[in-house]
Amino acid sequence: MATVNMDRLLQACITQGASDIHLVTNRAPVLRLDGQLRSLETKILGPDDTVALMKSITPERNQQELQEEGGTDFGFAFGDEARFRVAIFKQKGNVSLVLRLIPTKILSFDQIGLPKICAALCRRPRGMFLVTGPTGSGKTTTLAAMVNYINENFDRHIVTVEEPIEYYHNHKMSVINQREVGVDVPSFSEALRRVLRQDPDVIMVGELRDLETIEAAVRAAETGHLVFSTLHTTSASGTITRIIDVFPPDQQEQIRTQLSSNLMAVLSQALCPLATGKGRVAAYEFMVVTPAIANLIRENKAYRIDSSIQTGKKLGMQLLDEHLWQLYDSGKIVLEEMMAQARQPGALQDKAMTKIRAAKGTRKGRAKGKEAEAEMDELGDIFRT
Strand pairing partners for 32? Predict the structure, then answer.
């Protein structure tokens, strides 16, 4: 059978709208389409195939890192069509690759469904805006949309620190410098240590990975800069707790005070497959730091933040479960997906059962109600908390 060609794999990923390509030994290439893994009808890859595919796209320095460290990450452009973020690693002595598609077109706030208040927050001169969620939840896309909004509308100096650079931004109204960890600077913490000397207005940090990086990002917000970054947390209150827990006990009171004064908002997101089976939609939890929430952070009462979010709807605030219910109730996602992503699936299960029983009371809803109730019975109490 013919040799697998990397350019054809990349083109297939773009054409079919996949998010990732997986290349491993003893299996045909695999695409992730709408969250599901789908094998391509090509030859089964052998060890020599994955090495050849790796070498066709990997710079020499990354090939050396792979040999020395057992893994490497980088980004590259596929013509003018797209960029890919690549993770290469060894398993069982063989080379494996995962390529994440990064579209060249940056989406607008409306296209990705961001709360309207995000635009107002991006106009702020200082503060910290965190975008959180699990891997693959679209955090990078959301950050790119925010940076692009500032770039198009305001004269700012924007500095990004990424590993690797994913979305490339051109100079528009703003001046933008993008620094890649491992290429332009050795670490996130080193980049942030030096960034304040570079006359920045806006700083985007790819990820708050450690204590030193978090300290530097908070300090940058405190000294009059607008800072964007990400964490792998799944709720607004959990984000606050995670940041504070990184610090030693004797510094936690200080970081609570700093966060209460400098944190602007937390946007937690999850990507859900659409009920149609094609495409995905983002579910959001959104918290704006009001004086009441700032006080809860300062007084170490993060467990009460959810209640404040529920009362802050006029600012666009909402809990993740509220948005998941809206998506399910409007038919955009299925019951099982809503419950899998929910923070309190038991409560949503009860709400769904009430809706199903009400639907069975009408002639039109009987068939759908029976079908949904059967699905609920099948799920049983697996999601109950």
Answer: 20, 37
R_g of the chain, CA atoms, integer Å: 23
Half-sphere exposure of 35 (CA within 13 A, CB side): 18
- Please tell me the predicted confidence (pLDDT) of residue 77: 87
Q: Which amino acid is at 218?
A: V
Six-digit token string for 82: 């797209």
- Residue 189: count other Cβ atoms within 10 Å of its Cβ: 21
Q: Do the beta carbons of residue 290 and residue 261 sit within 8 Å?
A: no
Asked whether 258 and 128 are in contact (CB, 8 A), the reply is no
- Could you please report the per-residue DSSP string of 5-30? PHHHHHHHHHHHT-SEEEE-TTS--E
Q: What is the pLDDT of residues 318-369, one digit of tens each?
A: 999 999 999 999 999 999 999 999 998 888 888 888 888 877 665 555 555 5
Query: Beta 127-132 vs 226-231: how paired, if at all?
Result: parallel
258 sits in which H/E element = helix 252-262
pTM for the model stands at: 0.84
User: Cα-flanking dihedrals φ and ψ of residue 252, to 5°?
Assistant: -70, -35
